[in-house]
Write a structure and sequence with these properties.
Elements: E1 11-19, E2 26-32, E3 35-40, E4 48-53, E5 59-60, E6 63-68, H1 87-98, H2 103-119, E7 122-130, H3 137-149, E8 154-160, H4 171-181, E9 185-186, H5 196-213, E10 216-221, H6 231-241, E11 248-252, H7 255-258, H8 261-273, E12 277-280, H9 282-288, H10 304-309, E13 314-316, H11 333-343, H12 349-357, H13 361-367, E14 382-385, H14 390-396, E15 400-405, E16 408-412, E17 418-422, E18 425-429
Parallel strand pairs: 1-4, 6-7, 7-8, 8-9, 9-10, 10-11, 11-12, 12-13
Antiparallel strand pairs: 1-2, 2-3, 5-14, 14-15, 15-16, 17-18
The structure holds zinc ion.
Zinc ion (ZN) binds near residues 67, 69, 128 and 319.
Length: about 425
């Protein structure tokens, strides 16, 4: 289709020669009043007040972080560092810190991180928020950040009973209060309950709570190397029983790495039937799992290619940046995707696009964002990367040249290149 002759409207912005995921040609994208109004192979530059020639660089709507913790982000070393590197020591350190933190301090850290995320092209974060303190300071603070940032980044909050829903007396009331305050999604941690049976009971109660309120569910589920940690089976069962198809996510699912293959072949079918979204956090899984192994050490990543093969939606999360569980990170979802590429050995060239989908369109499916794709009528959200293919995105973790939200440029970065000086001779190197 070519509407080049029919542009009587004068557009605000025209993106020229954009490489869109899965499309071989270069597209011209017209923007008017914050929305995409034209998407075509040819649109004259004269149709817009401003045009940017992207020269064949990749454009995605934005990156999506499907699993994060904005309450603990950038708290590394407070009150101490994690010496064992285990999940449980991390939970203990966070437990010491969270009793002390103030509203102002959480808002400051979370807001600082949101700026990093925006600069890196993240446009939506699903963040768990710890609802285990009586004060619910974490909830109040992150609701404030969610609202203050909404023009620039979408934040979904999950009510997360970090220390167990049934294990901690009164946790049910605190979680309900958090939902009443405006938290978006029901969370859980069945492998953190006292017994397998109690974990299953927590899943039942939490899924019923979500169904009654019309909310989505996202549980930390089977974040363990124990092959017998099978709460995902129960989560799939209650999802089906309550008709919550497509509205429930299982985060981590690392026990699946260690499960028996025969059992997994049945489990994947149950998950597909319930339309469960699987969320993997490869940076954190490779760091925290396998800590009780000598050698060989398990990678502790869930079975991503097998789930995709089975038609299960999988998306990725950063989970942590500079907190008691993970000391590195700079809000780069391509670093997360690159780790999934390695750990899951998704090395065929065609799999690079699949890996990038897990931090873009598949993340949108997990979070339930419906106007995500680059299509006429949708919000004009674009991240322009200094890369020509999905494979290059994973390899280079390139500069985000422009981040555009609702038609406005909200972040810019310089193109990345180096100069080598050999025997007085200067040569530019851009790693392509
Ligand atoms: Zn988490």
């Amino acid at each position: 289709m070519n509407h080049a002759g029919s542009f009587s409207i004068y557009m605000d912005l025209l993106l020229q020669n954009a490489k869109l995921p899965g499309k071989p040609e270069l597209y011209q994208i017209g923007v008017e009043r914050g929305r995409i109004v034209a998407l075509d192979l040819e649109i004259p530059a004269s149709a817009a007040a401003r045009s940017l020639d992207l020269a064949g660089n990749c454009v995605v709507p934005y990156f999506i972080d499907s699993h994060f913790h904005l309450d603990s982000v950038l708290s590394l070393g407070n009150p101490r560092f994690n010496q064992s590197g285990t999940l449980f020591e991390g939970i203990d350190i966070w437990g010491e810190f969270k009793a002390e933190i103030s509203h102002k301090e959480i808002v400051e850290r979370a807001s600082r991180y949101c700026k990093w995320a925006i600069a890196q092209g993240i446009g939506a974060i699903r963040s768990h928020v710890d609802v285990s303190e009586n004060s619910l300071t974490t909830v109040e603070a992150l609701l404030e950040v969610r609202d203050a940032m909404k023009e620039f980044i979408t934040i979904q909050l999950v009510a997360f009973p970090q220390d167990g829903y049934l294990r901690v007396p009164g946790q049910d009331q605190l979680l309900t209060r958090a939902l009443d305050m405006g938290v978006d999604v029901v969370g859980g941690i069945p492998h953190g309950e006292r017994t397998m049976a109690e974990g299953a009971e927590a899943i039942r109660q939490l899924c019923e709570l979500a169904a009654a309120r019309g909310l989505r569910v996202d549980m930390h589920c089977d974040e363990s190397d124990d092959p017998l940690s099978r709460h995902i089976e129960t989560l799939a069962f209650h999802t089906q029983r309550l008709g919550l198809h497509g509205r429930v996510s299982g985060s981590h699912l690392t026990s699946m790495h260690s499960m028996d293959n025969y059992y997994v072949s049945k489990l994947l079918t149950l998950m597909a039937e319930a339309q469960i979204h699987a969320i993997s956090n490869p940076l954190i899984n490779i760091t925290l799992q396998g800590r009780h192994d000598s050698y060989p050490k398990r990678r502790g990543i869930t079975r991503i290619p097998e789930m995709l093969e089975k038609g299960i939606n999988v998306s990725l999360g950063h989970d942590c940046v500079m907190d008691p569980w993970y000391a590195l990170g700079r809000a780069d979802m391509l670093e997360v995707a690159s780790m999934a590429w390695h750990l899951c050995q998704m090395t065929r060239l065609s799999q690079s696009e699949e890996v990038v989908e897990m931090i873009t369109s598949r993340g949108a499916a997990t979070l339930g964002i419906e106007d995500y794709q680059t299509e006429v009528g949708n919000p004009a959200n674009f991240v322009v990367l200094q890369a020509k293919t999905a494979h290059e995105m994973l390899r280079l973790k390139p500069s985000r040249l422009y981040v555009i939200r609702n038609g406005k440029i909200i972040a810019e970065s310089a193109p990345r290149h180096s100069t080598v000086i050999l025997a007085g001779q200067e040569t530019a190197v851009d790693f392509t």
